[in-house]
Amino acid sequence: MVLKNKNSSEISPTNKEKIYSAIKEKILSGKLQGGHQIRAAEVAKNYGVSGTPVREALIQLEGEGYVIYEPYKGAIVKSISKKEVQEIFKIRAVLECMAMETALKRMTSEEFREAMALAEKGLNESDPAMLSTINWDFHSYIYQKADMPNLLGLINSIRAPMMRYVRIYHQTVDLKEHNHKHLEIVKAGMDGEPEKAAAILKKNLEKACEKIELFLAD
């Protein structure tokens, strides 16, 4: 598959960011499947740039777990196994529940109101791509309130390879029920029950893992 930009002449000086975003979006949307070879020379040609920003974009994508480098092939979209999914979600449950509990114990009334507004934002959203963004905005906002930057860094690094499958999960789940879970999380925090909020989060992660496993089994 060739990555094209119809307005390649209009690419801003931040070529690396443009190419990075384009390739990442194609991976997340499923247009580039696991095992697909990304030919750097073709990408550079179609964007009208040198190979340097393409290589830089691919290095960033590799660091985030979206691509791997194979001998004689170059950059390959990373595939993921059922076993890896199980492992990643177990790790996510530990890290994210820790961040959730810690944050909810520290948050102010104003911060809870902001979290509730973010939770409500997703109630009427039906687009899986937008919902994935809103979903992470909600979780990220709360996790940041834990004031544990190293923990947040670990969460970001472990969730990146799963994002393409999270979109699939949002296509199969009851969106209304899913979004209401965010409201329950915030309410539990406001009621002084961070452990209850973490339990809701853990159950949501387990459900997502099961759905993604079914997709991979197909």
UniProtKB/TrEMBL annotation:
Keyword terms, alphabetized: DNA-binding, Transcription, Transcription regulation
PROSITE patterns in alphabetical order: HTH_GNTR
GO molecular function: DNA binding; DNA-binding transcription factor activity
Gene3D superfamilies the record matches: GntR ligand-binding domain-like, Winged helix-like DNA-binding domain superfamily/Winged helix DNA-binding domain
SUPFAM superfamilies given in the database record: GntR ligand-binding domain-like, Winged helix' DNA-binding domain
Limits of the HTH gntR-type domain: 13-80
Stored InterPro entries: GntR_C, TF_FadR/GntR_C, Tscrpt_reg_HTH_GntR, WH-like_DNA-bd_sf, WH_DNA-bd_sf
Protein name stated in the entry: Transcriptional regulator, GntR family
